[in-house]
Write a structure and sequence with these properties.
By secondary structure, the protein is α/β, with parallel strands linked by helices. It is 35% helix and 16% strand. It folds into two domains: 48-69 and 357-454, Aspartate Aminotransferase, domain 1; 77-350, Aspartate Aminotransferase, domain 2, CATH 3.40.640.10. The longest helix has 18 residues, at 124-141. The structure holds pyridoxal-5'-phosphate.
Length: 455
């Protein structure tokens, strides 16, 4: 096979040939690989991913929003090695283990106080499915049989399984599956750059929460829960919204007697500058929080769904009462994954990660502000170590690039030549950085990103 790269990639051709012969990559039009074959990565350290020639790429998207403390961290590696010497896996029904007990205790101590119970799974979609099913069955168990629907945001994303897709926004990715999905009520997203109620930052009074309330007013009696990504709608284009919206949604959930499910799969574990994005809305009491991605700092798969004593108690009864939660996943609470998660939490404490990150985030935000003058930069938004640039054709009119123009893909290819991973979300280019980035790495990444967008 011949590759039309023309980009001068250093290919281990035979391996890449085999990759393309045997592997079907996720979220990938495999035909694009003719032009741009996958890049072979052999090792990684800190923020750097090294290819087979020893050249590096900056891991500007934290290996799909997972990596927190950098690659090849001695503390996490050691924890994994130690755990593997004693227990690699055991069924989690009828059996338990010390790492799981410790992690459950620690997770309940760092999330909102009303969350007291932890249900483990093995990825983000399963953490979400668990919350949806628990909320649904809660209302069945408590006799409110009509509460079977969910409210979600029209640009939200909660995973690729059928239930998670059903509560995600309708997009190019899931449109084809729409006959399979259950109906959920969609509220307009608090998308400030393209405000659904035509306000701007000076005139905003979180009117968009009123649209959520309109749905609740009509539908709360048939609604089990509202599901949201707190503060950052990540896959929807790194849409960052004010904590006031989250507070308003939490208050509405209480007032209208529906659960609030917070999907912190992308935002959890320091990415936004606080341990969890919901910490920006102090005092809110979600009924569920879904965690995954950063939980093991990107070393191994793990998911967790936290909930309240009240939800737990609605399932707690004599076996013959049929209140049991019949749900689980084979690799639930895998001990090696959990050992990585515990080590990651230790690092947060020992290295004072969140405190140290403050200066870094400030520099990051300052650097991003300078992007505003770029002709293609319609919007620049950021929080913590997440920054995004929404590309437009015409800044005044906010005209997006057309689907067929593949502007994001073009920038992605340009970025790779400069050793950056600027993986686009439609017309949005973003940086989603590990919390351990060094100042000079950050400066280099910002500089190169700006050059890439300007050229
Ligand atoms: C990635 C993501 C998921 C899905 O997680 P997977 O591990 O890919 O299944 C769910 N919710 C949010 C907010 C995500 O960003």
């Amino acid at each position: 096979m011949e590759f039309k790269t023309g980009l001068g990639w250093n290919l281990k051709t035979s391996l890449i040939e085999k990759d393309l012969k045997y592997i079907w990559h996720p979220f990938t039009q495999m035909k694009d690989c003719e032009e741009l074959p996958p890049i072979l990565i052999e090792r990684a350290k800190g923020l750097k991913l090294y290819d087979d020639k020893g050249d590096f790429y900056y891991d500007t998207i934290s290996s799909w929003w997972c990596n927190v403390h950098g690659h090849n961290h001695p503390r996490i590696k050691k924890a994994i090695k130690t755990q593997i010497d004693s227990l690699e896996h055991v069924l989690f029904a009828g059996f338990t283990h010390k790492p799981a007990i410790e992690l459950a205790e620690r997770l309940t101590s760092i999330t909102p106080k009303n969350l007291t119970r932890v249900f483990f799974s093995d990825n983000g979609s399963t953490a979400v499915e668990t919350a949806l099913k628990m909320s649904f069955q809660y209302w069945q168990n408590t006799g409110e049989k009509k509460k079977t629907k969910f409210i979600s945001l029209d640009r939200g994303y909660h995973g690729d399984t059928i239930g998670a897709m059903s509560v995600s926004g309708v997009s190019m990715f899931n449109e084809v599956f729409s006959p399979l999905l259950f109906r959920s009520f969609k509220a307009p997203s608090p998308y400030c750059y393209r405000c659904p109620v035509g306000k701007n930052s000076h005139t905003c009074d979180i009117e968009c929460a009123g649209q959520l309330e309109n749905i609740l007013r009509k539908k709360s009696k048939e609604t089990a829960a509202i599901i949201l990504e707190p503060l950052v709608m990540a896959s929807g284009g790194m849409i960052i919204y004010p904590a006031a919206y989250l507070k308003a949604a939490a208050a509405l959930a209480k007032r209208y007697n529906v659960h609030l499910i917070l999907d912190e799969v992308a935002t959890g574990f320091g990415r936004t500058g606080e341990m969890f994005a919901c910490d920006y809305a102090k005092g809110i009491e979600p009924d569920f929080i879904c965690l995954s991605k950063g939980i093991t700092s990107g070393y191994l798969p793990l998911g967790a769904t936290l909930t309240t004593e009240s939800v737990y108690n609605a399932f707690y009864n004599d076996y013959i009462k049929k209140k049991t939660f019949y749900h689980g996943h084979t690799y639930t609470a895998n001990p090696i994954s959990i050992a990585a998660a515990l080590a990651s939490l230790d690092i947060f404490e020992e290295e004072n990660t969140l405190e140290k990150m403050k200066d870094l985030a400030e520099l990051f935000h300052k650097g991003l502000e300078e992007f505003r003058s770029l002709p293609v930069a319609g919007d620049v938004r950021y929080i913590g170590m997440i920054g995004a640039i929404e590309l437009v054709k015409d800044k005044k009119r906010k005209t997006p690039f057309g689907f067929e123009e593949r502007k994001g893909f073009e920038i992605y290819k340009r970025g790779l030549k400069k050793r950056l991973i600027l993986r686009p979300l439609g017309n949005v280019i973003y940086l989603f950085l590990p919390l351990c980035a060094k100042k000079r790495e950050l400066a280099c990444i910002l500089d190169t990103t700006r050059q890439t967008l300007a050229s």
